[in-house]
């Protein structure tokens, strides 16, 4: 039904007993009044943008039940409907454009008021979890040191002074040392993440200098006597602690790469361990030849499913802290970490005249040479196998398992 709507007429309109009725307005094309059985009267408009599809939308409430005053008057509804129709004639969906502008404004407001806590949560979820094997340590670092002080601050308001104040407090009030630099690095990384997504214009932590300058790279290398003491202590441990320590010493691979080793990565017949890109720091497949000594450790395992170093087979070994305490106590070797074993393997191989390049390949160090990384597909298995077998014989000699020193043949130095 269509008619020329008037304010007087609208005051007399009654609600239907059921359903709804719609009364079109002859003065504003597309405008109509919708009345429901509950007595709600709404202004609606039908329009068709040039070249598009017909659309229909509610543009306001005229009157609610029990009210005599209009919320949106007839005059305002006609003006709005005519504006929508005029834009539609030019091929513009005015309502859709307004919705997009509102959404953009809301998104901009969310970005402007996005707190450090929100950014850190997104950084952990979208960057750390996919790219860091130990992302939980990063998460705990933020929770312990950053979020209590800066968590509720919008990142758009974060200033260099805020970062410096946090790091100064950690060092001078909290008495922390190297941890200060770790936190600084993670704040910088999280804010780089925010800058890339345009949550902030620039990273305020990028120009903050290293706060704690006493930190030195570790250079601890175990002596032969210390390595022997640790090996002998491992001999008296229960499984899987015993074989885990020996595997670390014989392969030189990273602690968690060994600790979380699943049986499907091991090829006993082919004498190879294939470490997938997803499980190593370099994010590239790494093939480790297995020396007879390593194979002997693995073949002693009764169950060859699940994880190699595990109590139940279902979860990787998790007693590292207690293991290190026992090794320290019983071996009487102090001031070392499990990662120092890896450096000791590298140093020991070098002393056996194993070429530096081969040592790097055994330890899966990154290669800066583009040709080596992308085009040279030779995996140097022969060289790596020779290096690991030479190292294993050297370890056997050090720990004194009855082998003669003449069985250890250092590789010839390159001329």
From TrEMBL:
PROSITE patterns associated with the record: CB, TYR_RECOMBINASE
Core-binding (CB) domain location: 114-195
Keywords of this entry: DNA integration, DNA recombination, DNA-binding
InterPro entries, per database record: CB, DNA_brk_join_enz, Integrase-like_cat_sf, Integrase_catalytic, Integrase_DNA-bd_sf, Integrase_DNA_bind_dom, Integrase_recombinase_N, Phage_int_M
Domain Tyr recombinase: 217-389
Keyword DNA-binding (UniProt): yes
Single biological process term from Gene Ontology: DNA recombination
Signal peptide from the UniProt entry: none
A molecular-function term among this protein's GO annotations: DNA binding
Classification via PANTHER family: PROPHAGE INTEGRASE, PROPHAGE INTEGRASE INTS-RELATED
Entry similarity comment: Belongs to the 'phage' integrase family.
Name of the protein described by the UniProt record: Phage integrase family protein
Native organism: Paramagnetospirillum caucaseum
């Amino acid at each position: 039904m269509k008619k020329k709507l008037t304010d007087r007429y609208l005051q007399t309109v009654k609600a239907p007993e059921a359903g709804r009725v719609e009364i079109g307005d002859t003065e504003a094309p597309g405008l109509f009044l919708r009345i429901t059985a509950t007595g709600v009267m709404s202004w609606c408009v039908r329009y068709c943008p040039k070249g598009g599809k017909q659309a229909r939308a509610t543009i306001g409430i005229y009157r609610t039940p029990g009210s005599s005053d209009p919320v949106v008057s007839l005059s305002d509804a006609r003006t709005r409907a005519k504006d929508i129709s005029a834009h539609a004639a030019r091929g513009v969906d005015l309502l859709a454009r307004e919705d997009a502008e509102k959404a953009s404004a809301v998104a901009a407001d969310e970005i402007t008021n996005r707190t450090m806590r929100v950014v850190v949560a997104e950084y952990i979820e979208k960057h750390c979890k996919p790219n860091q094997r130990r992302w939980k340590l990063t998460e705990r670092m933020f929770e312990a040191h950053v979020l209590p002080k800066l968590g509720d601050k919008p990142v758009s308001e974060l200033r260099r002074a805020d970062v410096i104040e946090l790091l100064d407090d950690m060092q001078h009030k909290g008495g922390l040392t190297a941890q200060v630099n770790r936190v600084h690095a993670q704040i910088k990384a999280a804010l780089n993440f925010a800058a890339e997504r345009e949550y902030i214009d620039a990273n305020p932590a990028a120009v903050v200098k290293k706060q704690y300058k006493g930190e030195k790279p570790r250079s601890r290398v175990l002596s032969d006597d210390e390595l022997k003491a640790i090996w002998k202590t491992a001999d008296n441990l229960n499984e899987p602690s015993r074989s885990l320590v020996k595997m670390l010493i014989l392969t030189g691979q990273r602690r968690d790469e060994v600790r979380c080793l699943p049986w499907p990565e091991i090829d006993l017949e082919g004498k190879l361990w294939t470490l997938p890109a997803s499980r190593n720091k370099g994010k590239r497949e790494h093939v480790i030849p297995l020396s007879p000594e390593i194979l002997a450790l693995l073949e002693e395992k009764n169950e060859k499913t699940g994880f190699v170093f595990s109590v139940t087979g279902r979860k990787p070994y998790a007693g590292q802290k207690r293991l290190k305490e026992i090794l320290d106590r019983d071996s009487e070797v102090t001031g070392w970490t499990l990662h120092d074993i890896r450096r000791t393997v590298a140093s020991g191989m070098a002393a056996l005249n194993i070429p530096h390049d081969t040592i790097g390949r055994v330890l899966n160090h990154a290669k800066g040479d583009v040709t080596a990384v992308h085009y040279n597909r030779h995996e140097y298995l022969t060289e790596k196998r020779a290096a690991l077998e030479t190292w294993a014989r050297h370890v056997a000699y050090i720990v004194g398992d009855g082998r003669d020193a003449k069985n250890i043949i250092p590789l010839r130095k390159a001329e």
